[in-house]
Each structure stands twice: as structure tokens, then as C-alpha cells.
């Protein structure tokens, strides 16, 4: 009996190890990119390694040892693994080209098909010993699979050639030409080996092809990796472009948002400061729009807002910027104006937008009117904030005097600030009377459903009005520069809650507290946090501070310095509402934050807007690549939870998981979870 340790044995060992390494590389990439095609190609490389082992083992037992009882099952395994490899390769390319997800039950179907074909190719002529039977076995087990594989590779080349892409891909070109060359070579080898099987050079020729086979598969594998990396990079660039667009545009109408409008307005005012030109700002608010939403549904309201945006763009083409400032309020900016007559004509053009009714998708007519406020620069404001504020006062005056009114700003509109003084006094009283209370919204670890912590939400328990949400009192506090006072109050209350839970339970959860920009940009913040933790004897990891992108980037140098000091104290920092501010992916590398919280607007749009899903996936992929945990805000459905969990989000929060709880409810939830 010949020894098994022949040069062919060592060559085949190299082939097997090579394919196994290639398979492991693809599985590593599949975990990073979570792409079904990469996983299928990884399977195929493992399967081809099994094929080489079983085929050569079958040859050894059938030809060298002469033991057909062992050789026949090995031949069956060789045929099965070969056809399974072919089917996996086709499935992988189908996923790449069609962007389809591969369902797990399809794998069972592929196994079944491969097994049936392997039975047909293995058992005919298995027990016969004639030369003709030997040739037929070779045809079924070797030549036909080689020709079939080569033909499929050539067909894949033409399939890829017809696949239209928007950009040139080096990886796709490598794969295409490797498939074409490799396919023709396989067919040629099969034909030569079959018709010249007894020639002395044929064996060496086929053996040499084995090395070419390994090289060809490796070349295809490298091309696939390059191609998939190019695709991921293209998706990331598209997501970044989408984020950049959403950061300065209204998501519903596509118009400029408030920040974008203010930026352009400021540029216009500064550019014409020393010239004899005026800048006109027209603010319009839809009258009784709340009743439209209440009498129909939110979709109808959205349709009307979109229709108003379209008409404004069609009716007012000379407006340099048209924006939706929020809700039902729109703004228009007109530049390089000299005379009052032109200004009056432009305002009348805006009014004419509402002369005709608006039609919903259900063919219902809605008679919509709008109140309008007008302000001019430099008379009514020498900067964007002041000019828009003047227009807002004029709009407010229009609305208080009926519907469909037009009001130009007058200085007397802001002479009486009694309301602000009253609100300021009430808010100061709220601090003295301890009227600010905390709610706690659970943060759940998505993969285990474990309760990790709570986000702290502040409410104003007004003695007459009841619970007042933060959307109503935070802007007042911000305008009165009292946000830091509220932050310090919330931090102390949160620390007190943590200390109480620590005394009642062996195990505690963390609390996430939002910080205002003016508080975060305070160099003394790290010292204050350290003193607070020391006072309540708390571990640093029990407190998580949440900041917005704008807070971190308003003074990037100071922001990074504060973040580094907090990191040295082992205090967790999360970037909140990611995707709504500066939103540049490059900033994530600079800012030493621990978590990224994807803004709820993207999560809420997952099921309706495919671009939102791409954005969320891109953010999660990049953040995970930078070793930053990802939190999904605003989860409301099981489908949203499943999606964010699958793309690698670590934690989630939202009404679909838990609504905000008061202290007693949060304590009860914590107790039940710990039990």
C-alpha cells in the first residue's frame, strides 16, 4: 500500500488550509458588516475545503486502498459539497446583485437540492469495474461538475456585466474577469482531462490546475471583499449626505429649517450692512391648523404642509430662502430691496398663496388662511435673531386679532414685557417651592432585555396648571439664562435617587441626565460632578451625562477638554439626538464620548422611509467601529426594536418599551427586575 504522505497530500493540505483561512476572513467581515452575501461566501469557502478533503480521500480509498465501502460515502460527500458550494456561490451573488436578505430556511432547500444531485452523480456505475464504467464515473463525478462550475462562473460574469452601478467599482471588475477566466479554464481542464485521461502529461496538467484553482478562488474572494467595502463606503457617503441634508432642512417639506434660515439671513444682513438695500422677512402661520389635524388625521395635516411649501416655492420664486421654522410656521427671505412698492408686491404675492383651497389625497377641499408677520432689516433688526424675533412679534399680533391678518412689526409690540417678567417670577418661585419633579424612562439592553438605567426627564408641577412639559418652560429658562440652575437641581435630585436605590438594593442602575449647552461649556463642570459624586458616595459609572452635538461643537476645544476630564473621572458621556446638529461623522473621532444616541426622528421613520434605515444603519456601523455604544431613542414598535437590535444598537428607549415613570414606579420596576 502506498503511503498517504505524498506531494499531492501536502498540496491538498495547503489548498484546504487556504480555503479555511479565506472562509474565516469572510466570516469576520460578515460580523462587521452584517451582510448575508459575505456570510454565504464564507460558507462556500468552508464547503470547498470539505470537498477537497473528501474528494482526495475518496480517490485514496477507491484507487490506492481499493476499499469501495469507505470510498463511496466519501465520493458522495465530495459530490454533495461541490454542488452545495456551487449553489451557495449563486445565492451569494444573488444577494449582492439583488440586495435581498437570505432567509435561513433557504439554506435547508439548498442542502436538499445539492444532496439530490450528489446522489444522481455518485451511485450510477459505482459497483462496476469495466473501463467504460470507470470513464462514466469520471464523467459524472469530475468532468460534468467541472464543466457545470465553469459554465456557471461564465454566466455569473455576464450577469455582473449587465448589473448597472452608478459608480465604477474596482472590486466588481476583479470579480468579473476572475470569474470569466476561471470559468473558461475549468471548462478547458475538464475537456482535456476527459479526452486525454491516459496521456502522461494530463495528470501533471490537472495537478497544476489545482494551484490555479486556489489562486482563482482567492482572487475572486479578494475582489468580493473590495467590492463589498466599496459598497459600504458608498452607503456611508450617501448616509452622510442625507444627514447633512436633514441637519439643515425640514424632513417633511424639504425646505430649509430654522437654523439654516437664520444662518442665511445673518449672511444676507452682514453682506449688506453698509449698502442701501433692505432684507425682508415674512413669517406666516396657518390659522386654526390644529383643528384640521383634529378633524381629520395627521396625514392630511402633513399633506397640507407639503402643499403650502410647494405653493410658496411656485408663487415666490424671487425668495432667496424659504423655510419651515416648525409646526405650521413658514418663513421667507427677500434680499436686495430698495422701495416700499416692491416690498408690498412681494407680501401680496405671499398672501395669494392662500387664495385657492388645498386638496387632500381623499379629494377633500380645505380652505386654509394664514396670519402674516413682516419685518425689515435694518429697521427692525440688525442681526438674524433680532429680525426673526421682530417678525414673530408681528405674527403673534396678527393671530391675536383674527385670521388672515397681515401685520408689519412696530416697536410698541415689544415695549411691554410684563409676560416675561411674570413667567420669570413663576419659574423662580418654582425653584424655591421645589416644583420641578423627575420622571424616569427605562433604558433597556436590547439583546438581553435587561434594565440598564433610566433617562431623567424633568417636569414642572405647577400649582395651578398641573404638569407642564419641558417644551413649554425650557425655552423660557434658556432665554432667561437659567438653564444651568435647572441642570444643577436635576443632577442633585438624580444623585439623591441613586443614593436611595443603592441603600435599598444590592445592585443599582445608572441615571442619564441631560445637560444644557451653557452648563456643559463651563470649565468647572468636571469639578462640580466630582463633588456631587463624593457628597452622595456614588460610583462614577452610575451617572451618565448627555449632551447634544451643538453643545459639544459650539466651542470644540473647550468641549473636548471638558469631555476628557469627565472621562478621567470615569463618568459616562453620551451624545444625545445624534443626526440633528452638526452631524459630521468625523467629529465622532475627535469627541471622547462613550455612547451615541440616535435621534428619535430617524427611528420613527424607519418603517416608512428607506433612507432613514440607511442612515441609522450607517451611524450604528460607524459608532460601533469606533467602540462607542449606540442607543436608539423613540422606539415605538416591535419592528423598530428588532431592526435597531440587528444592526448593533446596544440600548433602546421609547414608548414601545416603557413610558416615563415617576420615582415610585421606577423603584417598583427596579425591584421587580432585580428579583
Short précis:
With 675 residues, the chain is α/β, with parallel strands linked by helices. The protein contains 24 helices and 16 strands.
Explain how this protein is built.
There is one protein chain. By secondary structure, this protein is α/β, with parallel strands linked by helices. Helices cover 61% and strands 14% of the residues. The protein has 24 helices and 16 strands. The strands form three sheets. It has an eight-stranded mixed β-barrel, surrounded by five helices. Helix 23 (638-646) links the parallel strand 15 and strand 16. Helix 2 (36-65) packs antiparallel against helix 3 (68-98), helix 5 packs antiparallel against helix 6 and helix 6 runs antiparallel to helix 7 (200-248). The longest helix has 49 residues, at 200-248. It is elongated and about 110 Å long. The model has no long low-confidence stretch (mean pLDDT 82).
Which features does this protein show?
alpha/beta; 61% helix; 8-stranded mixed beta barrel
Q: Bin the helical content.
A: 55-70%
Shape, principal axes of CA atoms: elongated
Most strands sheet: 8 strands, mixed, barrel
Distance between the termini: 68 Å
Low-confidence stretches: none
Rg over C-alpha atoms, rounded to the nearest angstrom: 34 Å
Amino acid at each position: 500500500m502506498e503511503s498517504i504522505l505524498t506531494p499531492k497530500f501536502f498540496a491538498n493540505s495547503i489548498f484546504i488550509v487556504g480555503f479555511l483561512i479565506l472562509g474565516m476572513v469572510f466570516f469576520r467581515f460578515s460580523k462587521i458588516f452584517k451582510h448575508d452575501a459575505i456570510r454565504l461566501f464564507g460558507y462556500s469557502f468552508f464547503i470547498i475545503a470539505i470537498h477537497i478533503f473528501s474528494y482526495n480521500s475518496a480517490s485514496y480509498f477507491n484507487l490506492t486502498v481499493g476499499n469501495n465501502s469507505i470510498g463511496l460515502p466519501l465520493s458522495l460527500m465530495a459530490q454533495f459539497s461541490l454542488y452545495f458550494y456551487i449553489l451557495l456561490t449563486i445565492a451569494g451573488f444573488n444577494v449582492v446583485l439583488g440586495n435581498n436578505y437570505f432567509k435561513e430556511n433557504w439554506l435547508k432547500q439548498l442542502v436538499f437540492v445539492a444532496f439530490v444531485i450528489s446522489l444522481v452523480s455518485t451511485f450510477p456505475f459505482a459497483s462496476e469495474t469495466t473501463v467504460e464504467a470507470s470513464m462514466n464515473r469520471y464523467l459524472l463525478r469530475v468532468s460534468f461538475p467541472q464543466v457545470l462550475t465553469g459554465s456557471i462562473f461564465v454566466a455569473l460574469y455576464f450577469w455582473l456585466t449587465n448589473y448597472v452601478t452608478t459608480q465604477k467599482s474596482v472590486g466588481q471588475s476583479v470579480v468579473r474577469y476572475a470569474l470569466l477566466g476561471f470559468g473558461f479554464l475549468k471548462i478547458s481542464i475538464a475537456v482535456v482531462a476527459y479526452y486525454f485521461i491516459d496521456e502522461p502529461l494530463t495528470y501533471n496538467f490537472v495537478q497544476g490546475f489545482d494551484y490555479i484553482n486556489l489562486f482563482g478562488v482567492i482572487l475572486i474572494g479578494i475582489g468580493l471583499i473590495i467590492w463589498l467595502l466599496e459598497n459600504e463606503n458608498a452607503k456611508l457617503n450617501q448616509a452622510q449626505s442625507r444627514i447633512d441634508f436633514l441637519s439643515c432642512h425640514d424632513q417633511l417639506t424639504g425646505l430649509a429649517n430654522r437654523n439654516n434660515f437664520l444662518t442665511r439671513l445673518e449672511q444676507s444682513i452682514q453682506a449688506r450692512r453698509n449698502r442701501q438695500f433692505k432684507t425682508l422677512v415674512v413669517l406666516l402661520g396657518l390659522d386654526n391648523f390644529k383643528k384640521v389635524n383634529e378633524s381629520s388625521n395627521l396625514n392630511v395635516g402633513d399633506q397640507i404642509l407639503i402643499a403650502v411649501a410647494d405653493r410658496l416655492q411656485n408663487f415666490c420664486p424671487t425668495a432667496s430662502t424659504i423655510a419651515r421654522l416648525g409646526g405650521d410656521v413658514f418663513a421667507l427671505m427677500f434680499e436686495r430691496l430698495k422701495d416700499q412698492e416692491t416690498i408690498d408686491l412681494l407680501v401680496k404675492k405671499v398672501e395669494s398663496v392662500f387664495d385657492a383651497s388645498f386638496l387632500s389625497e381623499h379629494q377633500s377641499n380645505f380652505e386654509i388662511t394664514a396670519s402674516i408677520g413682516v419685518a425689515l432689516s435694518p429697521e427692525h433688526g440688525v442681526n438674524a435673531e433680532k429680525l426673526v424675533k421682530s417678525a414673530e412679534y408681528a405674527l403673534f399680533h396678527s393671530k391675536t386679532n383674527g385670521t388672515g391678518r397681515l401685520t408689519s412689526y412696530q416697536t410698541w409690540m415689544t415695549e411691554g414685557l410684563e409676560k416675561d417678567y411674570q413667567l420669570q417670577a413663576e419659574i423662580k418661585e418654582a425653584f424655591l417651592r421645589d416644583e420641578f419633579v423627575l420622571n424616569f424612562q427605562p433604558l433597556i439592553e436590547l439583546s438581553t432585555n435587561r434594565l440598564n438605567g433610566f433617562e431623567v426627564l424633568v417636569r414642572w408641577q405647577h400649582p395651578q396648571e398641573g404638569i407642564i412639559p419641558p417644551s413649554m418652560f425650557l425655552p423660557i429658562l434658556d432665554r432667561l439664562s437659567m438653564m444651568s440652575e435647572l441642570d444643577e437641581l436635576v443632577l442633585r435630585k438624580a444623585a439623591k435617587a441613586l443614593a436611595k436605590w443603592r441603600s435599598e438594593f444590592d445592585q443599582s442602575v445608572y441615571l442619564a441626565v441631560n445637560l444644557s449647552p451653557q452648563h456643559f461649556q463651563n470649565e468647572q463642570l468636571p469639578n462640580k460632578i466630582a463633588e456631587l459624586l463624593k457628597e452622595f458616595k456614588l460610583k462614577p459609572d452610575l451617572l451618565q451625562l448627555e449632551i447634544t452635538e451643538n453643545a459639544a461643537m459650539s466651542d470644540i476645544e473647550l468641549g473636548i477638554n471638558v469631555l476628557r476630564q469627565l472621562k478621567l473621572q470615569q463618568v459616562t458621556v453620551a451624545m444625545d439626538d445624534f443626526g440633528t446638529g452638526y452631524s459630521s461623522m468625523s467629529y465622532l473621532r475627535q469627541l471622547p464620548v462613550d455612547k451615541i444616541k440616535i435621534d428619535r426622528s430617524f427611528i420613527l421613520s424607519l418603517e416608512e422611509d428607506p433612507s432613514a434605515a440607511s442612515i441609522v444603519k450607517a451611524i450604528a456601523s460607524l459608532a460601533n467601529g469606533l467602540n462607542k455604544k449606540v442607543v436608539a431613542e423613540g422606539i415605538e414598535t416591535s419592528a423598530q426594536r428588532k431592526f435597531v437590535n440587528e444592526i448593533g444598537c446596544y440600548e433602546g428607549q421609547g414608548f414601545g418599551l416603557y413610558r416615563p415613570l415617576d420615582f415610585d414606579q421606577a423603584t417598583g420596576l427596579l425591584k421587580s427586575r432585580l428579583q
